[in-house]
Amino acid sequence: MDVLAAVSGNVTAIGYGLAAIGPGVGVGIIFGNGVQAIARQPEAYGLIRQNMLLGFVLTEALALLGLVAPFIFRAIP
């Protein structure tokens, strides 16, 4: 019980830290596969880059929602 009481003040920080792992891995996969696709088909650079950036934006939007959500839910009584 004492450990949980000591951690209770930082639960949102710990939660966001754990939630940031998913988008971090997602961004790595997006850019890794994008570079590999461009290396295989250089003529499709424009389309691959466009899809790669769209995937990056959507993944980062989830990370920002994870950052803002604790503040929103804490304000609700």
UniProtKB/TrEMBL annotation:
InterPro entries in the cross-refs: ATP_synth_csu_bac/chlpt, ATP_synth_F0_csu, ATP_synth_F0_csu_DDCD_BS, ATP_synth_F0_csu_sf, ATPase_proteolipid_c-like_dom, F/V-ATP_Csub_sf
Molecular function per GO: lipid binding; proton-transporting ATP synthase activity, rotational mechanism
Residues with site note (Reversibly protonated during proton transport): 60
Subcellular location: Cell membrane; Membrane
Highest taxon listed in the record's lineage: Bacteria
Name of the protein: ATP synthase subunit c
Transmembrane segments: 13-32, 53-73
Its job: Key component of the F(0) channel; it plays a direct role in translocation across the membrane. A homomeric c-ring of between 10-14 subunits forms the central stalk rotor element with the F(1) delta and epsilon subunits. F(1)F(0) ATP synthase produces ATP from ADP in the presence of a proton or sodium gradient. F-type ATPases consist of two structural domains, F(1) containing the extramembraneous catalytic core and F(0) containing the membrane proton channel, linked together by a central stalk and a peripheral stalk. During catalysis, ATP synthesis in the catalytic domain of F(1) is coupled via a rotary mechanism of the central stalk subunits to proton translocation.
CDD domains assigned: ATP-synt_Fo_c
Annotated SUPFAM superfamilies: F1F0 ATP synthase subunit C
Membrane topology qualifier: Multi-pass membrane protein
